[in-house]
Amino acid sequence: MFQSLSSLNLHFDPLLPVWGIIALAIACVLVLAFSLFNQSYKGLIWRFIALLVFLVWLAGPIILKNHREILPQTILMVMDQSESMSIGKRTEIANQALQQLQDKIPANTRVKIINLHNISQQGTQLFQALQKATNEIPASQLGGIVLITDGQVHDVPKEFPKFLTLPNKKTIPLYALLPASKEQTDRNLKIIHAPAYTIVGKEAKIQLQVNDTGDAHEKSAHLTIVQEDKQPITMEVPVGKPETITVPVMHTGKNLIGLSVSPLKDEITAINNHQTLYINGIRDKLRVLLVSSSPNQGERTWRSLLKSDPSVDLVHFTILRSGEQNENIPDSELALIPFPINELFMQKIDQFDLIILDNFENRFALPPYYIASIANYVKNGGGLLLIAGPEYASQFSLQNSPLRSILPATVSSSKDVINQEFKPELTELGKKHPITHDLDRNNTQWGSWFRHLKANHTKGQILMQAPNQSPLLILNHVDKGRIALLLSDQIWLWSKGTNQNGPQAELLRRLSHWLMKEPELEEERLSAFIKDQKLTIELHTLENDVGNKEFTVTSPSGTLQPIQLIMHQNGKATATLSTKEEGLWKITNGNLTAYAASQSTDPIEMTELAVTGQKLAPLLDNYGRIYWLGDEPNQLKVPGIKIVKKDKASNTASSMEFPERVTYTSTKQSIHHILSPWLALILGLGSIFMAWYKESFS
């Protein structure tokens, strides 16, 4: 392929000054003239030689000369800056070693430094970062790799990686510098398996293992189990073998469990002797009884919502006739069964977590003692939800039954049934309550309802209201149980897309779970967590001020410290506290209690913390070497760096050897005539002289 001279980056060397070029040109003209007009043949040969010399110089070929420069080879240094490198003086030793290595770099060699952070929560992925870095360096320039790490690498390949193998099948030298003087002694507690969820009242099985490294030879260790308010339990477990323990799950929501193992003599750190984990307590099956006294649009909404939740076991009845009715209908023609009143409301009522009475009108359906059984069920800890329509203001209303004593609101007469379009809205309390506090967070208007009941007497918490401030959704605590009353039977409209939708499914879901005492929906809720050695306390409350509430923080060592929370908007108060102790922290004000424990952002990284060469040794024994730097930053044994002129570097105790990588690059191209201008001038003029001499004196 030919390339025009204009497209090349060429440099013309000034081999002949301008006057010389002019002289050559004049000489050429003279030779031509002399050859044309001189008829003598005595100097013909010399004239021909002169003419040939000048023609070769003027029109002859040229030589393109490449000027090359040797490129420096690259030594790649990987600085491990993962969490485990923060133990002791490792970071200081690593930084000092890097500085000394940079001072020892030979001429025509450059260093590329890669800082490695464990951000994947999968431990130190050193070789993954190494592959990415080597892709950016030409293989012909990569002299070798130096790893400054504690040896806790979690992606060491079983075979030498292909990306460190050159096309000629030769390998790139790989060295590791460890910030210690020898293998370190350490004990760690590792959680092999723990369930994420366990049924409340059952025991969770946790599989763990205690491991010792270094010179330790103990066969067993003491394991301490701390679980919130329970007394600590200590037991003996084997070292180096998996062990399964059981802990009870005491309540719904997060159950915090702290595990710690006795320290090992002369171990480097006790950080990894502790582990904390959360196990979510769940109910086996949420049994819900839904009773409608007549078919209506809302019961389908309730049924769809409850049946879509796999954790809910729904029992649904729609009453079309009372148990006492007897119309003398033959059994072969009777499609409906009598309502099993005694079984549901006397024998098995305590088995339900929630009872929903939807537009329930007690038209001889339930005798008074069954209604009284529902009231006792609520007082003993059950949940009851009433969806009220026009029937709530009739003579068969539940207001006129033994249930009246626990109802949060009453309606005087049918005149208080308001049939007009309105849009529900949250009360100031509703904007704070966990059930409704963020239902209108997008500031979108809810769809209209067309009927509600005007209550004349209320008790409890009003979360939603009609525009005239008439209560719409009321909650109340009754002894050990809870009750909720929705004074409208129009919520089903939000599922039909009429006008605009509303948060129907989320509202009903939260309402149901609040009645079933879901911890995340409690009005007064205290929580805490630890991150980056900082304890954060959060209080969710319906009160406007928490200045009179003093909380006490108990550290793992038993130290008590009072702390005052700062109130924010929407019923949230917070406080922060610096923490250094490992273990279980307790926060309480007497009524509310929360627990917290520090957890590593990368549990894999913080399990094994001893400086070790065992993980890298299988790879480096054949393709490099491990160097121990020492325990003190000012007394390091940093190996030297040598560039050797052979294909494979040798392993020596004093120096890291890297094979010389000679790579050239073209810096410029210059044009040279095949015949030097000075030589052409001498030969040309000499030939002219000889021609003149022959023709003049022969």
Automatic annotation (TrEMBL):
Would the keyword NAD be found if you checked this record's keyword annotation?
A: no
| Presence of keyword Transmembrane helix | yes
Annotated CDD domains: vWFA
Transmembrane parts of this sequence: 16-37, 44-64, 675-693
Q: Can you tell which superkingdom this protein's organism belongs to?
A: Bacteria
**UniProt xrefs under SUPFAM superfamilies:** Class I glutamine amidotransferase-like, vWA-like
Q: Which UniProt keywords apply?
A: Glutamine amidotransferase, Membrane, Transmembrane, Transmembrane helix
Q: Which InterPro entries match?
A: Class_I_gatase-like, vWFA_dom_sf
Protein name, as recorded: Contains class I glutamine amidotransferase domain (PDB:2GK3) (PUBMED:17968677)
* Species lineage: Bacteria, Pseudomonadati, Pseudomonadota, Alphaproteobacteria, Acetobacterales
